[in-house]
Amino acid sequence: MNSKTSPAPMVDLGIADDDRKQIVEGLSRLLADSYTLYLKTHQYHWNVTGPMFQTLHTMFMTLYNEQWLAVDLIAERIRALGELAPGSYQQFASLTSITPTSGTPNAKEMIRDLMEGQATVVRTARALFTVAENANDQPTCDLLTQRMQTHEKYAWMLRSLLED
């Protein structure tokens, strides 16, 4: 049998197939949110202006570099669960909960928008956690815990910049 007609190998990782597929759907949403936040943060890094330019330019670079590494971890977890990871703009646009930005906001609006984006990723990860936990999927739970911790920290840092 050639590779074009042979069925995909069975995935038996000790996770029920329905649970595995539900986890992959949640991870796909997390991947879309993470990639969308990455793009937005990189755009803001390029276009930020004003008296906090140097601080924000550097901070945004830290954020988007961290996001870039995270999208790979999430996509690889989807692959380890036996499914294909979404990867096109169209797929991400249909899966993400992050609101797109039109135009170029000022620095304070960028901070607020990225703070909300960080919180959105946390909510997406948290919504999936119980599903992964109930399926006894510890690797996904570990990934989600790490993502929530990181995004909660960055949401706090951004929120702190908005305080007087």
TrEMBL record:
GO MF terms held by the record: ferric iron binding; oxidoreductase activity, acting on metal ions
Taxonomy, superkingdom: Bacteria
Cited SUPFAM superfamilies: Ferritin-like
Domain Ferritin/DPS per the UniProt entry, residue ranges: 25-164
Residue ranges that the Swiss-Prot or TrEMBL entry lists as coiled coil: none
Cross-referenced InterPro entries: DPS_DNA-bd, DPS_DNA-bd_CS, Ferritin-like, Ferritin-like_SF, Ferritin_DPS_dom
PANTHER family assigned: DNA PROTECTION DURING STARVATION PROTEIN (PTHR42932:SF3), GENERAL STRESS PROTEIN 20U (PTHR42932)
Family: Belongs to the Dps family.
Protein name: DNA starvation/stationary phase protection protein
